[in-house]
């Protein structure tokens, strides 16, 4: 916590404002598919080498990405960051 003097309030009086750091975390999940398959091999050879991992459309992997921003609250907006902008960043990561 940081204390900043805004103005002198006269003898023995000091006006303070608090600058509190705030954290905001958004988590986005996404799924990626891939298939273990060689186009120069037959279906049977791919199945023998890679088993069910060669089956279309592939097998999934699920991921989560958490983005955290930290800083003082913007006195006008009352937020550490524009939430819509943070959501746009998260959506771009999930593509």
How would you portray this structure in words?
There is one protein chain. With 95 residues, this protein is of the alpha+beta class. It has two helices and four strands. The protein has one domain. The protein has helices spanning 43-50, 83-93; strands spanning 2-8, 14-19, 21-34, 59-72. Strand 1 (2-8) and strand 2 form a beta hairpin.
Report the biggest beta sheet as strand number plus sense, adding barrel if it closes: 2 strands, antiparallel
Number of strands: 4
Taken from the alpha-carbon principal axes, the silhouette is rod-shaped
Average of the residue pLDDT scores = 81
Domains, number:
1
What is the CA–CA distance across the termini?
37 Å
Low-confidence stretches: 1-8
User: How do the strands line up in the largest sheet?
Assistant: 1-2
Oligomer: single chain
Radius of gyration: 26 Å
**Share in helix:** 10-25%
Number of helices: 2
Would you tell me the structural class of the helices and strands? alpha+beta
Order of helices and strands: EEEHEH
- Percent of residues in beta strands: 35-45%
Provide a compact summary of the structure.
This protein is 20% helix and 43% strand. It is an alpha+beta fold and 95 residues long.
List the SSEs and their pairings:
Elements (H helix, E strand, L loop, with lengths): L1 E7 L5 E6 L1 E14 L8 H8 L8 E14 L10 H11 L2
Antiparallel strand pairs: 1-2, 3-4
List keywords for this structure.
single chain, 95 residues, alpha+beta, two-stranded antiparallel ribbon, two-stranded antiparallel sheet, 4 strands, 43% strand, disordered N terminus
């Amino acid at each position: 916590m940081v204390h900043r003097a805004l103005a002198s309030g006269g003898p023995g009086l000091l006006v303070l404002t608090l600058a509190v750091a705030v954290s905001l975390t958004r988590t986005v999940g996404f799924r990626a598919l891939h298939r273990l398959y060689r186009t120069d091999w037959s279906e049977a050879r791919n199945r023998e080498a890679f088993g069910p991992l060669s089956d279309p459309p592939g097998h999934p992997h699920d991921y989560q990405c958490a983005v955290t921003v930290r800083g003082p609250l913007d006195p006008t907006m009352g937020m550490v960051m524009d939430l819509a902008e943070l959501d746009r960043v998260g959506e771009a990561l999930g593509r």
